[in-house]
Task: structure prediction
Amino acid sequence: MSVATTVSQPAPSKPEPGPSLLNRMIVRPEIGSALGALVVFLFFSIITDRFLSALGVATWLDDASTLGIMAVAVAMLMIGGEFDLSAGVMTASTALVTALLAVHAGWNVWLALLVSLLFALAVGALNGWVVMRTGLPSFIVTLGTFLALQGLNLGVTRLITGTVQVSGIRSAPGYSSAGWVFASTTNIGDARIQASVVWWIVLTAIAALVLVRTRFGNWIFAVGGSLVSARAVGVPAVRTKILLFMTTAFAGWVVGSCNILRFASVQANQGVGLEFQYIIAAVVGGCLLTGGFGSVIGAAIGALIFGMARQGIVFARWDSDWFMLFLGVLLLSAVLVNNAFKKRAERVRR
Result:
């Protein structure tokens, strides 16, 4: 007589629950800047009526746009573990090259823009190559570039024009079409939205896609997190960092082009000191000073906070000197919050 035996099967294991909504939010570097932007927006919306008017919204978007273009590029570079202190003066250098060629050499504006773009990309590539070739900190290398460009701007402009300003580009051939691309306005109701705002949105979207959806974006996080480890797994570190410096220079060209075609004049010392605001906006947006962590969307939001706060102070009729106090408190708070968020994100990912 045979006896049937049955083998008990182990009960299917329950799938592990996914991370909670809170944990998914914590791992996003831009969450802190988004909360900060909401607070600033609500605060100035309550204390002043002009802040939410069509003119008010257009004003603080315009204020934030050129800062946002640069902050996005600087954020990508910081995620890659580097700094560019020549970013501010680059906006003036490219504008001066365009203006001098178009006004004093009689070139078509589009050709002058092309030459200024090539100039910017060459300087960015040189910065990246020197940093990777010598191993010097990018802080020192780009500080040297900053001083060199500032001296070049002043010396060449004074030599050609006898002053430290170039103006008159509106009479140059090709200005109308170039001005439409870089300096036109779009009416939305009573608001006049500048072309720089469109450039800001488009470049932020492109940078965000590159950073989180492409192999190059993975390389940026890798070289910023650990250069030695990135090289060990085959990441082209030299190429990646050179391209990041060129990206920052390209953003400087965009901002310089928007400024010269909109205002039709440029000062040789324009942009000096703004490089620190770009870095602060990136830090407020979630970038760590040590690299390997951050968000370009967060950097764009950080620039938005700048624009809202700077114009909100004006609308509230406060002394504008308070804005520097706001920047100092904002930077310190952002560094503390970013470190806390990064530690929490590392625990969540484990």
Residues 32-341 form a domain with the ABC transporter involved in vitamin B12 uptake, BtuC fold (CATH 1.10.3470). The beta strands are 165-167, 185-188, 191-194, 265-267.
